[in-house]
Every structure is written in C-alpha cells, then in structure tokens.
Write a structure and sequence with these properties.
This protein has 294 residues and is α/β, with parallel strands linked by helices. It is built from 11 helices and 6 strands. Helix 1 runs antiparallel to helix 4 and helix 2 crosses helix 10.
Length: 294
C-alpha cells in the first residue's frame, strides 16, 4: 500500500519516516503498522532499564515482531532511527504527534485531536514562572502532570521551556503523564524517554483511575503493570530522592518511643505497605551529560 506523502510535514526526518512507514504497510494496514511500531519501540526502551516489567514486555515485542518479515522489520528500525534523529536535531517539536495527525490515525470517537504544538509552547511559557523556580530552590524539584497526555506535546513543550530558562529539567522536574489509549500513551513515553525527561507514563482512565503516588507524593506511583518508567527516572539523583521518601515513611510508621514502658507489649506492630521503588540502573552519559542507553 503506497500513499502520497501527507502535506505540512516539518522536515526531511518526517518525510523519511513516512517513506519507510509506507514500505512497511504493503502487507498490513497503516494503523496496525503504527500501533505495532509504537509498542515495540516503547518496549525496547523500557526493557533497557525496567527489569521488573521486562519479561512481559519482551513477550509482547516478540509477538508483534513475528508478524513482519526481515525487510519490514528493517523499515520499523529505520522509522525509529528517524524519530531519534529528529528529536536530537530539533527537540522542540511533537514529532510523533504531528505524524499521527498527518496520517489521520486519530480516533475521533475517543476525542483524539491533539493540541497543536504551538499552543502547547504558549501554555508552557505561561506556566513557567518565578514561583516554579522558587519551588525548585526550596525542594530541589517539582512535578508536572498531564492527565490526558496524548503524544506528550504539553510535557515536551514544558521541558523545552525549562531548557530555554536554563533550568535542568533532567534533575529538577518529574514528568507524570496518563492516557487511556495504550498506543498513544506509548507515543508519549517514547518522546519523553528520548528527550531525557525523568518520570513515568500511566496507561489508564484518568477519570475513574487517576494515577496517584504513595502518600500523595508523585515521586513513587502506586504500583501497577501499566506504568512505563522513563530511563532518566532511574538516574541516581531520583533514586536517592525515592529512598528518602521511603525512609520518611518508615519513620512515620515506626515513630521513636519517647516514654519508657513498664510492661513489655506483645501486640503485633503494623508493617508499612511495601513501596515499589525501582532500583537505579547504570546509564551512560556523554561528555555533555546527555543520556544514552543504546
């Protein structure tokens, strides 16, 4: 199936992506190829750092890959390379979201009409202010949340605004996203991961099952199988912040005894609920501090 290249593409990276995409669509529908490509790419990134979910996601990857022959898998690989290179050359864009809409893959029944990136940039500029900088100075970091993230355009725009304001979002901002659509959520995960945004994407209904953190703090989300942690979330600075939260919780559950007791009490002491605190991974960095995980 060969289609004409959509109009209004940003650059040659997107045009090359479409070219490889069309080649992969010769035996499969465009939606099937897009969905499989997104989920396989997300699984590849996740499995490089998140060992707790690697087993099931590797099975999913293998099942999807078995549908394609060697040449088609090569096209999927080249598509991913165009995403990586496109965001490397111009991080200030919604690469996958723009293509998703240009290919007319959105589901109007789910309300999948992505906000234009220019609007997201304006929103990010309006959101960033002195109060945010003050919170970072006080606590060391802040969190931003998009409960209907789509491909992550709002969060990507906020990361770029932080960069323009000379705020290191890799160490100062926790990105939390949620979307009801699995494929769209994985699109957001891919872009946040490639841009080095620490955080996670939750696949689920924000209205009925909003993502929440332990003790109301987003640093450690309530455990679940549909949480996708970005590679930067495993950086040492975020790992030690999570450990700090765990220790604070232990202290609250087992407060220090301030008065002596005459009788030895034998009643059971309640145990704190276990926290799903992902262990840090060894991530390679370039001389400029850029994350690499391939």
């Amino acid at each position: 199936m060969v289609r004409s290249v959509p109009r209004h593409l940003r650059d040659d990276r997107q045009r090359d992506f479409i070219r490889f995409f069309d080649q992969a669509c010769r035996r499969h529908s465009p939606w099937t190829v897009w969905a499989d490509f997104v989920v396989m790419s997300a699984a590849s990134i996740s499995n490089s750092v998140d060992k707790d979910h690697a087993g099931e996601r590797e099975k999913t990857y293998a099942a999807l890959a078995s549908k394609y022959d060697r040449s088609e898998l090569e096209c999927l690989s080249r598509m991913f390379a165009e995403v990586v290179n496109g965001l490397e050359e111009n991080p200030d864009q919604d690469f996958l979201g723009d293509l998703f809409m240009a290919l007319e893959l959105g589901n109007e029944h789910k309300g999948q009409f992505f906000t234009p990136y220019s609007v997201c940039r304006m929103t990010a500029k309006m959101t960033y202010g002195k109060d945010l900088e003050a919170k970072i100075d006080q606590r060391g970091w802040v969190s931003v949340n998009d409960p209907a993230c789509g491909a992550g355009a709002l969060l990507v725009a906020f990361a770029n605004e932080c960069r323009l304001q000379h705020t290191n979002y890799q160490t100062s901002v926790l990105f939390v996203a949620q979307d009801i659509d699995h494929v769209v959520g994985c699109m957001c995960y891919i872009q946040l991961s490639l841009l080095g945004c620490p955080g996670y994407v939750v696949i689920g209904n924000s209205l009925t099952e909003p993502c929440s953190g332990i003790d109301g703090d987003p640093l450690i989300p309530v455990p679940g199988d549909n949480i996708w942690y970005t590679p930067m979330y495993f950086r040492d600075v975020w790992h030690y912040r999570r450990l700090g939260q765990v220790m604070d919780r232990v202290i609250r559950v087992f407060p220090q005894q301030t008065e002596p007791r005459d009788v030895l009490e034998t009643e059971a002491v309640p145990e704190p609920e276990p926290l799903d605190c992902p262990a840090p991974q060894l991530l390679d960095e370039t001389d400029m501090g850029q994350l690499t995980f391939f």
